[in-house]
Amino acid sequence: DGGITQSPKYLFRKEGQNVTLSCEQNLNHDAMYWYRQDPGQGLRLIYYSQIVNDFQKGDIAEGYSVSREKKESFPLTVTSAQKNPTAFYLCASSVPYGGNQPQHFGDGTRLSIL
Amino acid sequence: DAKTTQPTSMDCAEGRAANLPCNHSTISGNEYVYWYRQIHSQGPQYIIHGLKNNETNEMASLIITEDRKSSTLILPHATLRDTAVYYCIVSSGGGADGLTFGKGTHLIIQP
Questions:
Q1: CA-to-CA distance for B2 and B28, rounded, in angstroms?
Q2: Which of B72, B74, B79, B92 has the fewest CB atoms lying closer than 10 Å?
Q3: Residue B89 bridge partners (DSSP)
Q4: Nearest residue, CB atoms, A106 vs list B43, B93, B94
Q5: Shortest CA distance to A108 belongs to which of A42, A40, A36?
């Protein structure tokens, strides 16, 4: 079945370590997104990419980095500069800009600091 | 993107219709209304979207007022599995620059 796969489901990080969250989609979507969700809150946009080899900062990009070398993949790195990385991270994808089709989401990665 | 206002929480009896309201008084002419829901510890699930006409699919119906300043999501026969947080979002272009999520409505289906 087509969909978005995020891995791992749970991730633990030591203070000062970088960690990379995986997001893969087989929906042939051009656009991909990373959101962060804190308890009891809505989602906030970290980074997005509308096409391969291009990406844009969202509302809370500080302390995060991304790459978009392949259409299917949009990994997110949480760097040691992110002071409060414990959160639920969600990846999404959609068809290109100009349409009205919705975003489709993965099931998330829950990151915790040891 | 325009902001939306939703009630924090709602209850509904199992088997009854659940009607979730959303106000979006500053919506622009090219912005669609999208509804998503999120079951605990899962990613948001797309439900339905519309521009100005009422829409229906296998999950729900969307009723948009004539002035487009508010809308209602209707789950016709609510089940316990419909307990979730429901988000109403207005956006143009499917949210190509990212979607703006509020806190949504926590819908609790009572047995």
A1: 7
A2: B79
A3: B34
A4: B43
A5: A36
Residue A83: band (very low, low, confident or very high) from pLDDT cuts 50, 70, 90: confident
Distance between B8 CA and the closest CA of chain A, angstroms: 11
Helices (H) and strands (E) in chain B, counts: 0, 9
Q: For residues A50 and A68, is the Cβ–Cβ distance under 8 A?
A: no
Chains A and B form CB pairs within 8 A to the count of: 75
What does the CA dihedral B46, B18, B64, B25 come to, rounded to 10 degrees?
-90
Residues belonging to chain B with any Cβ–Cβ distance to chain A shorter than 8 Å: 32, 34, 36, 41-46, 49, 51, 87, 92-104
Nearest to A42 among B43, B46, B104 (CB): B104
pLDDT digit string, tens, across residues A12-69: 988 889 999 999 999 999 999 999 999 988 899 999 999 999 999 999 999 999 999 9
Q: How far is A87 from chain B (nearest CA, A)?
A: 11
Return the CA Rg of chain A: 13
Name which of B90, B111, B97, B94 is nearest B6 in CA terms. B90
Mean pLDDT over each residue of chain B, to the nearest integer: 93
pLDDT for residue B2: 58
Q: How confident is the model at residue B69 (pLDDT cuts 50, 70, 90)?
A: very high
Please check whether residue A7 touches B, CB under 8 A.
no
Chain B contacts of A106, Cβ < 8 Å?
43
